Amino acid sequence: MHQSVRNRLSSFLKDYEGKVGYMYLDVKGLVTVGVGHLIEPVSRATSLKFGYKGSPGSSASAGEVAAEWQLVKSRKDLAPQGSAAFAPITKLELSDAGIEQMVLQAAGAIEDYIKSNASARAYYADWDRWPADAQLGFLGVAWGGIPLPQFGWHKFPEACKAQDWASAAKECRISSPIAAGRNEAHKRMFENAAQAKANGDDVSILNWPAILIARVDVVGERGA
Predict the structure, then answer these.
(1) Is 32 exposed, middle or buried (0-12, 13-18, 19+ CB in 10 A)?
(2) DSSP 118-133
(3) Where are the alpha helices (DSSP H) in the chain?
(4) Quick check: 208 and 175 in contact, CB under 8 A?
């Protein structure tokens, strides 16, 4: 993953997933924290460094984390009200640094999967050579699950395999209650990637949220 993508990923996801330091239930009744991170089973929660709200640097025990996880899990009645409904019943939270670490670990897990899993590698083997905008767009799409044919994705993986970023921009839509602005962002990222490829730009540079345009020298050469 390009460093420019690592630097921007957390803030991009936060705009659409939100960032919540305490545990809550998502719309499916699954315990969640951070930037849309599922922490089920409870062992995922106890592996994290929770502290006490309002006490930076504090540390909760594994038993305390497990107890709060069980409390949150039991309150399915609050799930339809959103994450804010769990604020009054929780005492623990992750720090911003802890949430950032979770984001990068999750992104690393996605990278590892597309490089090691045979089905995913068939489409995403050239990941390291992708333009930064394409990497960020892909991570946004893959945050809810790796886009593969067995999961209902067909044209998008094929476009990524061919590094046909213009087609990827048309096929990258996700279905989610929070997808409207996010889909537009993904589309622009892949459009930027297509333009970066046409320009011959440095693939490590992330252009989004700016819109990349054709370089004058490239246009001039084509018109000559």
Answers:
(1) buried
(2) HHHHHHHTTGGGS-HH
(3) 3-17, 42-46, 62-74, 96-116, 118-124, 132-142, 155-161, 165-171, 179-199, 216-223
(4) no
The per-residue pLDDT for range 152-175, each reduced to its tens digit, is 999 999 999 999 999 999 999 998
Compute the radius of gyration of the chain from its Cα atoms.
20
Domain extents in the chain: 3-100, 123-223
Q: Amino acid letter at 60? A: A
- The single residue listed with the structure tokens 């009645």 is 77
Look at residues 5, 4, 3, 26 and name the one whose alpha carbon lies nearest to residue 136. Answer: 5
For residue 110, what are its two tokens?
A: 């996605």
Evaluate if pTM is beyond 0.85.
no
Give me 33's structure tokens.
Answer: 């924290």
Integer distance in angstroms from the first to the last C-alpha of the chain? 37
Q: How far apart are CA 113 and CA 124, in angstroms?
A: 10
- Averaged pLDDT score across all residues of the chain: 92
Rounded-to-integer distance, Cα 150 and Cα 130, Å: 23
Please name the residue ranges forming H helices in 39-95: 42-46, 62-74
